[in-house]
Amino acid sequence: MKILIVEDEEALSESMVQYLSREGFVCETAYSLDQAAEKIELYLYDAAIVDLALPDGDGLSVIRKLKHIAAATGIIIVSARKALEDKIRGLETGSDDYLTKPFSLPELNARLKSLIRRRHFGGNNEIIFREIRVNPYSRQVFVSNRETHLSRKEYDLLLYFLSNIDAVLTKESIAEHLWGDYVDSADSLDMVYSHIKNLRKKLAGPSDAGYIQSVYGIGYKFRSL
After folding, report:
1. Do 16 and 49 form a contact (C-beta atoms < 8 A)?
2. pTM of the model
């Protein structure tokens, strides 16, 4: 899952990136309203963590822009402001949760995962699609009740497909989702094909359902039928 961290305290931002990256998230950062606005225009995110007090303005404007461009993006506010009216303003603007600084990274991680389950998978503790069953807590994947071992990128790719059933995903969007900003320096998108090929084999199962369909000249689609 790909998240945007909008936080001007660099030490805190780096701590969140390090911790959440270990938890399997692809993290991108912005330290100001301008940087956040640029990233929101260019990329899609599953969730965003937004500080209200930014050097060039109020983080609420980031939330408004996100809700306008990508309404499905989940939003957690992190702020040193403890006033009830600030929490109410944040929630009314479109945020899903509010954490007051200082907070623990394990709590942020738990709230972030809960938010993504609510936003993309109906709040279920397990994600079930036909023969596929995914446990986000343990990162285990089962196909026809048999555990299938996926690499980190294969797992991230599967969740991306499962949150976009029947949608055509371009190779570029897949690469951005799996590698974030780092994809801009890639010479080609061959790594996308490699991960697609491996995931196809591992999801085949006894019935060979053929979940991943190539869409010529565009990308791939995860089929519902």
Report:
1. yes
2. 0.71
**Does residue 167 contact residue 221 with C-beta atoms inside 8 Å?**
yes
Q: What are the phi and psi torsion angles at 24 (to 5°)? A: 100, 5
From residue 56, alpha-carbon distances to 8, 31, 34, 76 in Å are 10, 10, 8, 20
Contacts of 160 (CB under 8 A, 6+ apart): 1, 169, 174, 177, 178
Both 143 and 178 in a single domain? Answer: yes
Q: How many domains does the chain have?
A: 2
CA distance 40 to 28: 11
Structure confidence by residue, pLDDT tens digits, 138-171 = 889 999 889 999 998 999 899 889 888 888 999 8
Residue 172 CB partners (closer than 8 Å, separation 6+): 189, 219
Containing structural domain, residue 208: 127-222
Q: Kindly report, residue by residue over 47-106, the tens digit of the pLDDT.
A: 999 998 888 888 898 899 888 887 788 999 988 877 677 778 777 888 889 888 889 999
